[in-house]
């Protein structure tokens, strides 16, 4: 019964604010090289729409074309088959799960397991009304980091020019950390005494991206070595949010965390 309640609560956190009217999030999609140069930039819309009793969600991605048409892809997310005890299964990739720690919407979309010979990617969602930054690294089938993808989204219209990258942070910061386990349990909050932009202590590669987003991820992922990935954003002058995922040496997903720092 507890597991069922956790699943129900999780579904509500994911989709409780989705309406029967299709509401598009206008996005600027950018692909970065490992040298932080822009390889590609294009626009897209992500749209979620619910049925009357919030048991079926339609997720649509639309990409404007030069001839005025749209390239479009849609998925149907059914509560009965997709709302699982280990997270949300999105039909786009059944090997991944979506977790939501805070209301509303996904916090991260990640593989349940690192599998040698298969591409690996984790997507983080850093939200601060009315904007949403989606960030992730793409690893090749050899486990080596290949590129970075960032999606800057907002309601109403496509985003304007982003804020300049954040390369350092000053002041006295204290944070609170919430951690979500593979069975959807959220642990008691943990106090973080100070903010360190690179919590991997140099083990990961750090990317300072637009909108004052900091992505800290391994250059390579492989079985036999545990690893963590971090994505943070300075959302206001005195608030910094960071998400992280942890995998163990067997390549299994261990936990997802959300840290909120105040200065």
UniProtKB/TrEMBL annotation:
Transmembrane segments: none annotated. Residues 7-157 form the DUF3598 domain. Gene3D superfamilies: 2.40.128.20. Residues 196-257 form the Biogenesis factor required for ATP synthase 1-like C-terminal domain. This is Uncharacterized protein.
């Amino acid at each position: 019964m507890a597991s069922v309640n956790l699943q129900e609560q999780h579904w509500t956190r994911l989709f409780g604010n989705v309406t029967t009217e299709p509401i598009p999030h206008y996005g600027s999609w950018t692909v970065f090289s490992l040298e932080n140069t822009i390889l590609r930039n294009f626009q897209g819309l992500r749209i979620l729409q619910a049925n009357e009793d919030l048991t079926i969600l339609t997720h649509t991605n639309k990409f404007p074309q030069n001839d005025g048409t749209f390239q479009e892809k849609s998925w149907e997310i059914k509560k009965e088959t997709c709302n699982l005890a280990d997270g949300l299964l999105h039909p786009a990739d059944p090997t991944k799960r979506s977790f939501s720690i805070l209301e509303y919407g996904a916090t991260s979309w990640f593989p349940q397991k690192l599998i040698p010979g298969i591409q690996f990617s984790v997507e983080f969602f850093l939200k601060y009304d009315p904007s949403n930054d989606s960030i992730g690294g793409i690893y090749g089938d050899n486990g080596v980091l290949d590129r970075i993808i960032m999606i800057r989204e907002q309601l109403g219209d496509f985003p304007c020019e982003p804020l300049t990258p954040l390369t350092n942070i000053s002041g006295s910061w204290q944070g609170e950390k919430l951690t979500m386990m593979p069975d959807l349990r959220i642990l008691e909050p943990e106090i973080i005494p100070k903010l360190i932009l690179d919590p991997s202590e140099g083990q990961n590669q750090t990317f300072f991206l637009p909108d004052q987003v900091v992505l800290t991820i391994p250059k390579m992922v492989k079985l036999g070595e545990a690893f963590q990935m971090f994505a943070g954003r300075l959302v206001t002058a005195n608030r910094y949010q960071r998400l992280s995922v942890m995998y163990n040496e067997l390549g299994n997903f261990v936990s997802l965390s959300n840290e909120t720092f105040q200065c």
